[in-house]
Amino acid sequence: MPTIKDITDYLESIAPAHLQESYDNAGLIVGHPDTEVTGVLTSLDCTETIIEEAVARGCNMVVAHHPIVFRGLKRLNGKNYVERTVIKAIKEGVAIYAIHTNLDNVRHRGVNERIAQRLGLEKLQLLAPKNEEGTVGSGMLGVLPEAKSEEEFLAHLRDRMGAKVVRHTEKLGKKITTVAVCGGSGGFLLPQAKAAGAEVFVTADYKYHEFFDADGEIMICDIGHYESEQFTTQLLAELLIEKFPTFAVLCTERITNPVRYFV
């Protein structure tokens, strides 16, 4: 039976911990590396209900994309959902591991490659590479097999990413061939998306005034943070099953998205 360290070492061979951004808190948040793992539950987020699900399904480790502890904890008295989740995990003996911006920053088998695959993009390359080999960096750029009208692309994006709604800037009357993507809060990559000649930039967490930055050069599509990264849950499970084929690796059945839509 693998240990927590076996699991984390493998994941960090794909997305090394040193690739996480300076503000991040990826890594083992709860648990001891030498603990044997009975099963892993993968999820985008780690919440109290995820810990409960892990226990109910025989898993003593949660591998999540988002770190439950992002800012420093000074107390553990259950006053908020972060503290309650950590307390419940410790009480139930469930380890919590987060693989966040380090998984965002890898070209192969990372978050943005999965988004590009969902959209059927080809000729993939990093939108903002950070090394000469083009294996580390932010976002992803790709081309559609066949050009789409803006209406066709918006419908394709909504359906393939399971989005309830797509917030977007004005249509520019262009055929869509080149698409830039970034899971989560990717607005910082808009200049690179424009420079790469993308007709569309798909990301999340855009604020009102930031939409003006499209400036008639590109169509920005905000599909929501959860929606942009939700398939990371499946990605993590696939990676672990590939390495540990006889081991219980389960995807969460809970929707952790805190945002609701009235339509």
Report on this model:
The chain is an alpha/beta fold. It folds into two domains: 4-103 and 231-251, Udp-n-acetylmuramoylalanyl-d-glutamate--2,6- Diaminopimelate Ligase, Chain: A, domain 1, CATH 3.40.1390.30; 105-228, NIF3 (NGG1p interacting factor 3)-like (Udp-n-acetylmuramoylalanyl-d-glutamate--2,6- Diaminopimelate Ligase, Chain: A, domain 1, 3-Layer(aba) Sandwich), CATH 3.40.1390. The chain has nine helices and eleven strands. The protein has helices at residues 4-14, 48-56, 81-92, 101-104, 111-118, 150-161, 190-195, 225-229, 232-243, and strands at residues 27-30, 40-43, 61-64, 95-98, 122-129, 137-148, 167-168, 176-185, 200-204, 219-222, 249-251. The strands form two sheets. It has a six-stranded mixed beta sheet with strand order 5-6-8-9-10-7. A five-stranded mixed beta sheet has the order 1-4-3-2-11, with helices on both faces. It starts with a helix and ends in a 12-residue tail after the last strand. The mean pLDDT is 97.
Write the layout of secondary structure elements.
Blueprint: H1 4-14, E1 27-30, E2 40-43, H2 48-56, E3 61-64, H3 81-92, E4 95-98, H4 101-104, H5 111-118, E5 122-129, E6 137-148, H6 150-161, E7 167-168, E8 176-185, H7 190-195, E9 200-204, E10 219-222, H8 225-229, H9 232-243, E11 249-251
Parallel strand pairs: 2-3, 2-11, 3-4, 8-9, 9-10
Antiparallel strand pairs: 1-4, 5-6, 6-8, 7-10
Find the CATH topology of the largest domain: Udp-n-acetylmuramoylalanyl-d-glutamate--2,6- Diaminopimelate Ligase, Chain: A, domain 1
Main sheet summary? 6 strands, mixed
Assign the CATH class of the largest domain. Alpha Beta
What is the tally of helical segments?
9
What class would the helix/strand composition place it in? alpha/beta
The mean pLDDT is: 97
Q: Element order, helices and strands?
A: HEEHEHEHHEEHEEHEEHHE
Spatial order of the strands forming the largest sheet: 5-6-8-9-10-7
What is the CA-CA span between the terminal residues?
A: 47 Å
Q: How many separate domains make up the residues?
A: 2
Percentage of residues in DSSP E strands: 15-25%
- Helix content, binned percent: 25-40%
Instruction: Tell me the Rg in angstroms.
Output: 19 Å
Tell the overall outline.
globular
Question: At CATH's second level, what is the architecture of the largest domain?
Answer: 3-Layer(aba) Sandwich
Q: Please provide the count of β strands.
A: 11
In CATH terms, the superfamily of the largest domain is NIF3 (NGG1p interacting factor 3)-like
